[in-house]
Amino acid sequence: MEDNDVFFNGAKERATRESSSGIAQAWAIDHLDGAKRAANWRTIEGISGILRRYPDIACQVHGTTTETKPPANELLADSFQMDRHRDVDAIMETLAHRRAEACKAAL
Predict the structure, then answer these.
(1) Start-end of H helices in 54-87
(2) Are 69 and 91 in contact (CB under 8 A)?
(3) How confident is the model at residue 67 (pLDDT cuts 50, 70, 90)?
(4) Which of 1, 15, 102, 105 is the most buried (most CB within 10 A)?
(5) Cβ of 99: how many Cβ atoms within 10 Å?
(6) Backbone φ/ψ region at 22: left (φ over 0), alpha (ψ -120 to 50), beta
């Protein structure tokens, strides 16, 4: 499971903006690309299986984003009620946190 990532749609992607989830698609496990969605769920199910087989172990979930220069994505900033010029780092940290929480919830 070491080299299995969970892939997310980017906040700037047109498909993200046009999805029924809107900007929340940027932290949804169900990627809009079918192959990536299936890979995401294989990863989640694999980790979940390990955790069920070995209930005494724990895992740490870490979300990441790409590096962004100001200004941050307007839809993300609005969604998180932050200033897209001043709060770029906080916006990206919040996105990373939401992605990690989505993975934890799926487990």
Answers:
(1) 74-80
(2) no
(3) confident
(4) 102
(5) 21
(6) left
Helices 34-53 and 88-106, packing angle to 10 deg: 60
Closest CA to 26 of 90, 85, 77, 69: 77
Residue 50 and residue 1 in contact, taking contact as beta carbons nearer than 8 Å: yes
Which among 103, 76, 97, 100 has a CA at the least distance from the CA of 88? 76
Q: How do residues 11-24 score in pLDDT, each as one tens digit?
A: 999 999 999 999 99
C-alpha 64: how far from its chain's center? 8
Give the integer Cα–Cα distance in Å for 10 and 27.
9
pTM over 0.90: yes
Tokens of 22: 């809107």
What are the φ/ψ torsions at residue 75 (nearest 5 degrees)? -65, -40
CA 43 to each of CA 1, 19, 85: distance values in angstroms, whole numbers, following the listed order: 7, 23, 35
pLDDT tens string 70-84: 999 999 999 999 999
